């Protein structure tokens, strides 16, 4: 498939309404790993430092949502921020993050960070790189949001953010095509997938995919009988997943099955969190 022409379905013709919001989902590891039954001192200090960062982050102007999630089965922390715009993100990394940078880097090291937005400027890229953060930056391609942007029940919903990179010699256009098929068919056949977004990674032959499921059972259907299963072979032929971040109550059966699918997954349970009154366009509005 040398050239692929994408025809967006009617429900994707209008871009999603996230405006200038920017989302970051990232993973941090302790510098010193603990044992099977005991976490290292660095791990304890890393969590404490992130608790301190969270306290200051939710006071930062333009921080719409922030959460500190505890990785399941790994000695790691999964963090997620939603910024009002580019300026609030850049100011955060030059101010709040900068104040905690030295203490955090003494006990922890950044792993992958996936950054999403309608567009990503070089200033945003440099603001993360300047703090030693390994970022992947994705600009919006296509997607849909159901339920009039209403935020799902956070005690049940699962957020999935992943990076897929083309294998050598393969086409990014073909990868776009197959993920468009996933989203198009899921819109009609998977009621529990309430959000689907694809982003093209700047400077790489790769995509960031973000999906929201109302419940763990809806995610299970997607992986085992839904569109992930239907198009798995097509996507696997041309690309490979670099990381999968799951935020929410993922069942152990899904964790087991995703290992079978070869997904490099990090699962996390929700820790301290904050969302501005009314919610966000990136994860949903809080309506009465």
Structural description of this entry:
- The protein has one domain: 2-Layer Sandwich (Alpha-Beta Plaits).
- The chain contains nine helices and twelve strands.
- The protein has helices spanning 41-57, 86-94, 96-107, 122-129, 172-189, 216-224, 227-230, 232-238, 252-260, and strands at residues 22-30, 63-71, 77-83, 108-117, 134-145, 158-166, 193-201, 206-213, 239-247, 265-275, 279-280, 284-285.
- The model has no long low-confidence stretch (mean pLDDT 93).
- A ten-stranded mixed β-barrel has the order 1-3-2-10-9-6-8-7-5-4, surrounded by eight helices. A two-stranded antiparallel sheet has the order 11-12.
- Strand 7 and strand 8 form a beta hairpin.
